[in-house]
Every structure is written in structure tokens, then in C-alpha cells.
User: Fold these one by one.
Assistant:
Number 1:
Amino acid sequence: MKRNNHSLLRDEILSKVVKPTDHIEKLIEIIAKEHTPCTISKKRNISLTRNGEKQCLILFDGSVALNRISDGMILNAESAPFIFGASCQLAYTRHLYVKTKETSRLLLIPQRFFHEQVVKYHLWQSLAMLQDYSSAKVYAHCMTISQLSAYEIIRSHLLELIDEPNAIKNNITAVNYIMDHSFLSRSGIMRVLSKLKSDGYIHLSRGILTDIIDLPEKMNRLYSKSGPAQPAE
């Protein structure tokens, strides 16, 4: 299945959210011009506070996820370019942390300094576009986990996974990816993946998703084919 077909199927579940890349790059170019980013290896946790002060994380290369401290659940994930932590209204720093999904190049700067630069260089429109996009992504995530059946959640995350960069999708099993993004149990996810694989809807290699041929929209269509499920490997 081609990439644009994956996006079309995913848009049946989530409203289409367009990343304001030009505005994000403008913010990064102006605000981070006198700072040097650092390279962080994958699966490293990054706090959004330093010495009690809120930080903005500017992502130049790679991809990161925003996780909840209480259970590690991924609430949002972004690839470069992006900026986390621009909102001064949310007390997110006590409850959330960022984890690199692959080796990434990033920069932490005080949120106070970030907003001073927004004022100085009249970057309000770009900041508004960033915040609007971030809100839409969180809303789409909430829609995914709160208004869909277990199968529809799995289907949605499979479509997200196949569109991830190779450095991510080739190094995480489908079941672990879905568990990171939802409250679904491993056994329930494995049961659905096994059925999808045995019926030829997806290809898995040692648990890693390699291709999506087609995905039924509903669970009853998934079980319309006969035959026992095979292990999701």
C-alpha cells in the first residue's frame, strides 16, 4: 500500500492536521540562531525543567515523543522541525517528559527567553500557528483513544506506524508501538495483529510491521474471513 493511501485511510478516523512547517522553521531560525544544539541518542528521557525553570525544546533533526510521567503513555510525537513547551498556561512540566524516538539534534532554552524573542521579533503569528497545530494534534489523539473501539485504535496506530521514519518503524514491534500509544493490553493487541496477518491484511517480520495491504474499517469485516489466527511474528 502506498504512503498516500495510508494517509487517506487515517484521515477517515482523524481530522486532517497540517503542520505549519514554515512558521516553525521561522521561529527556530530567529530564536535559536545564537545557540548550539546537541545530539541525543534514542530512548533518552529529557526533562522540560532546569533548576525549576520551564524549558522549550527545539527539535532540529530526528523525532521525539511527549510522555506522561505516571504511566509512560505517549500523548504526542513529532518529527523535526518542532518546538515543545511554548505554552506558558499549562503546568505540564510536573507531569510530562520528552523521550527521543531516534538519535536527535535538539536544544533546550528557557521558556522565558523564548517568549522574549517572540515579542522582540514580532513572531506572534508563527507562535499562534504552532499552538493551533499542537492543540489539534492533542485533540486528534484524544479522539483516537476515547471514541473508537479497540480494533479502530489498533488500526489507527498501525497506519501511523507505517508512516514513521525507517529508523523508528524498523526498530519497534507493532505491539509495543501500539501499547506505547494506548491503554490496550498486549494480549488483545496480539490477537488482532495475528488475525490481520493470517488474513493477509498486513505483513509482519519478527513482530515489526513491514507493509499494510489493506485494513478493514470495522471488526466485523476483520472476522469475515475464515481460518485460525497465526502468531503475530
Number 2:
Amino acid sequence: KETQPLPSLNHTPHQPVSQFRRALPQYLAALAKNLLLLDLGMVIAFPTIVIPPLLHAKDGLRFTITQASWFGSITYFCQPLGSLTAAATLDMLGRKRSMVFLNIPFLCCWVALYYVNTVTQLFVLSGIMGLGIGSIEASILTYVGEISEPRLRGTLTSMAEIAEYMGFVIMFFLGTVTDWRTSALISSLIPVVSIVALLQIPETPIWLISRNRQEDALKALCWLRGWVSPEEVQSEYDEIIQYSLASKVLKCVSRSESTEKHIYSNDVNLSDENLNKEYENNKPDDVPSANSKRIDFQVNPSNGGSELDLEERTESIYMREKLSMKERIRDFCRREMMLPMFLVCSFFFFTYGSGMLAIRPYMVPVFMNLGFIMDPYLATTVFTAIGLLGCVLCTVTVRWLGKRPLAIISVFGCAVSCLCLGTYALYIDELEGHKHAWMPMLMMVALAFFTGIGMDPLPWMYLSEVFPFRGRSLA
């Protein structure tokens, strides 16, 4: 495609936009995509309200202990498979369109769960929803990372975890007041509302720029920064242009007298196809010689990347090419990707090993075995609401306390809570559990709170912040 000229932005005086007006559209966009996370939370919580009644059913649709274990786990087994397909979908369709389309399988599965008649059907539908969860996470976190300002990014990302916790609370509440089939049918309303909300928000400017849609990117940025005029976002727009161009991978091929060198360059070169049309039509099959000349446009960093300088290159030739799989892997394994990848994966490892996530599908049987004096179904709602409270507290305090102190507090609190809870469960018979029923409840409250205040939301904050644009979807 022929490179479009960058929109011209005139330097005209304008009134400063208030912080509230500048932040409001970013919060609205985050709320729209959070409806998808609300649905995600309801999907994860759904096995919790299905397993107990089917495990103890006398006739009809029912679970054996093995089937109940599989039903509680199959969503998590399929989740990584969905993540593998997310990168290609995000880059091809865009962040917004991917989120819209992902609502469709969830809508179909919720309706189908109302009419399900066999255990096999439950397994299949649960697996499909697990695939959707893997795809959702990448699109949502990529979107919020690309539309938000740095000062709001931590808060907007932690709002995602709040939405997921709200999904838990809603599903557990539905399981308390109605049966699981009706809960599934009610849940089908969420994808419909999510589609309507997502259609009202713009695509991310940086993705639009990567698709050579500068005018659409400028309009999207104006919307996201408070419905302002183009002049008021000129500086940020120029920075996004420069960052997007600098993120592109161009294969630089040069030839000396007897050798050829293939290297990777992040130099920003926008080839004018009109000027090089004759060269492209007559390009030989092999690599051009060092004497070949080509006119390139190159972004001049000194003026913010908003103007293009004409430069004649004689020593090498820059070609836009589709990289092979080996080259893509080599580019992905660069240091700028591997360091944040190690950080995020390590954090997620400890998050999923912190206790609360592992027992969530089996919370009702666990509470029964621990001798809770509270109704187990009501207890699931209460403890999840406590986790939601911790997540809200994380959202409010992360800008002032920082991520590291919250992470240390959360990890330490989860460790102590799990140790005490496990010790109590091990010696419950000797302790005469009915006389000490308050002990496991107190430990579970602490575990839910400390999980919500850091272990759950913080990895997702890092995930949306630490990766560079090139490779972010795959990461």
C-alpha cells in the first residue's frame, strides 16, 4: 500500500483541557472492555456453582468425583491454547474488533449451557469458554496499555481485576438465589451488553498507525484525550508516530565484494513507492549490488518525527519483507522482550500458586470439610467480596505505594494464611473443629484479602506496561 502522508497539525493556541475531561474517556473505554472481563469472571466462577449440585445428584445429569475434578480444571487446561491464537488475531483484526468478536462464543455457550443434557456437553462448552478466556486476556490488556496515559495505566489495569472479581460475586450470588441453568441463561445478557459498549469506543491509535491509517489514529487519540481538537494532541501524536515507526522490523541487506550480510535494523525508513516504482519493477531476483541507488524517506528524530527528510542511500538497501518464522523468533528473543517476560511469568507462577485460585472451583466442598458455620454458598460470595475489597484498595493505593510494596505485603500475607489454613485442615480432627469454626473463616478472610490486594491484580498491571509494541501481542 502506498504510504499516506501524515496529517498536518497546525500550532495554534488552545485552552488547556482539565484532568477530569482528559481522564474520563479513558475510564469509559476501560469500563467498556471491562464488561468482557466481567463475563470472564463469571465463566471462571461457574464451575463453583455447578459442581456441588451435580456431585450430589441422585438421578439425571450428575458428576462422579473424577468428572467433577475434570470439569473444574478443563477451563484452565484450554486457556493456554486460546492464548496461542490471540497474537495473530490481535494483529490482524485489531484490539477492538477482536474483543467484539470474542463475545460471540461466550453468548452461544451461555445459552447452550441452559439446555445441556450430558456431561460431555458440559465438558465441550467449558473447553470452548476456556479457549475464549485465553484470547480475551491478551486483547483486553493490550488495549488498555495502548490507550491509556502512563499516570492512569496502573489504575485502569487494576480496574480489570475489579471487573473480574465482580463477575465472581455476581455468579456466586446467582448460585445462591437460583439454580445453575438459570444462572447461565442470565449470564448470556453480559456479552450482548459488552458488544454494544465496545462498539462505542475507538481502536487504539498505535494499531491504526501500524496499519497506515493515520487519520483514524488521530481521531481516536482526540476521542481518548477528552474529545479535543487535533492541535491539542499534536505532541503525543508525534511521539506515537515515532514510536510506531521505530518499532517496525526492517531487513537490511547489504553486499560487499564477496560476502552478503543479513542484519536487523530498527532504523525508520518509509519507502516512497512512487519514487521507487521503477526499481521495484526491475529489481533482480538476487540481492542488489552495493552500487544500487534508492531514494528513501527517513524520520528525522530532531523534529519529533513529524517531518520527512529525503535521503539518498548507496551503501545498502532496505526492504520491507515478511520475516520467516526463524527470524520472528530471533526478534522476539531479544533482551527487551526476555527481561519483562521473565518478570511477568515469575509473578504469574507465584500468583497461581498462592492458594485461592487453585481452590476456587471447589470452594463449596472445601468450606463444608472445614466445618464452616456459614452456609457454604453464601460464604463463597462473602469471601469473594472481601477479595474485591482488597482489589479496590490496590487500585486506590498503587499510584502512591507502588507495585513492589504491595506485592511484598500480598505475598507474605498469602503465605501466612495458607500455612495456617493448611495446618488447621491437617489437624482438624484433633482440634474438634466445631469448637474452633471461627479459625478457618478468619484464615480464609485473610487469604482472600491478601490475594485481592496484590497477587491477583499486579501481574496484569505489569503485563500491560512492560512489553514494547513490537511483540506485545505475542507476549
